[in-house]
Amino acid sequence: MFLPMIYSLGNFLNWKISYILGPMLFGVAHIAMILYLLKFSSFLKKTTGNTLEKRSYIKIIIATYALIAMTTFIRPHLQAHKVFKSNSASMESTILDGDRIVGKILIDAEKSALKAGTVIVFKYPMDPSISYVKRIIGVEGDRVRIIDNLVYINNIPLKTGPAELSTLTRSTTKQTYDQLQETVGQRSYRTSYLSKNNPNSRNSFFKNWPTDSVDFIVPSKSYFVLGDSRDNSTDSRVFGAVSYEFVEATVEGVLYSVQDGSLDFYERFFSTL
């Protein structure tokens, strides 16, 4: 019975550990149980008559129950995580284009309990066959407004400050972004905005939102989401709030990344958000 306990412990550890150890422990536990049953079946063959000691019956019951329990109750933990591919720079510098991110698949009861600041994977409301990755900024009932690139929730501005890296230049477009450290709830992260000297900037549109100067009220059973790269993101400012039913997973970290056609093993490998 100690094997299921070991596996469960592995699953409750940090996702980086359980993502590797979970399948390994699950396989080891199965092999151990099978070997035990084979060994016990050999013992049965040596037993004379049709009677067995009471302890032998108990061992059979325990071994069989343990194997069934692992298959029925523990194995679903292996299916609780899924790897998604990021095909967008809308979450830079938290998530890069080319990152393979690990998402924890949510059941319906969990989808309604997410907090502001959580990064989620959800089905694009305009085309559910496509998955998007954004950060929750507002929950149901919140009043959201953006004034001079500063996000207000219920008339209170989110806390912002200078980021460790104040500017970011994207290698593909050569555009320069100004970065700020933003905090919502218990989460602090970097946001980026196109510098004013960039051509074709959408800053004039997103700098003040909604354009009619009326607060956006997050509907019931929905989330207001934004990309961390504010001037390079199609999010709730464009398609509205995201209903709970479209939420797929919460993002826990980056498994690995492919940058410029090659694996990035150093900066992005098994990194947390």
Give an overview of the whole structure.
The protein has 273 residues and is of the alpha+beta class. The chain is built from six helices and 16 strands. Strands 1, 2, 3, 4, 12, 13, 14, 15 and 16 form a nine-stranded antiparallel sheet that branches. It has a four-stranded antiparallel sheet with strand order 7-6-5-11, with no helix packed on it. It is globular, with a radius of gyration of 25 Å.
Oligomer: single chain
CATH fold annotation of the largest domain:
Umud Fragment, subunit A
Number of strands: 16
Instruction: Indicate the low-confidence ranges by residue numbers.
Output: 1-12
Approximately how much beta-strand content do the residues carry? 25-35%
Indicate the mean pLDDT.
79
**What is the highest CATH level, the class of the largest domain?**
Mainly Beta
**Continuous helix count:** 6
Q: In which range does the helix fraction lie?
A: 25-40%
The tally of domains stands at 2
Q: In CATH, what is the homologous superfamily of the largest domain?
A: Umud Fragment, subunit A
Give the topology string: H per helix, E per strand: HHHEEHEEEEEEEEHEEHEEEE
Rg estimate, integer Å: 25 Å
Q: Quote the distance from N terminus to C terminus.
A: 36 Å
* Helix-and-strand structural type: alpha+beta
CATH architecture annotation name of the largest domain: Ribbon
| Largest β-sheet summary | 9 strands, antiparallel
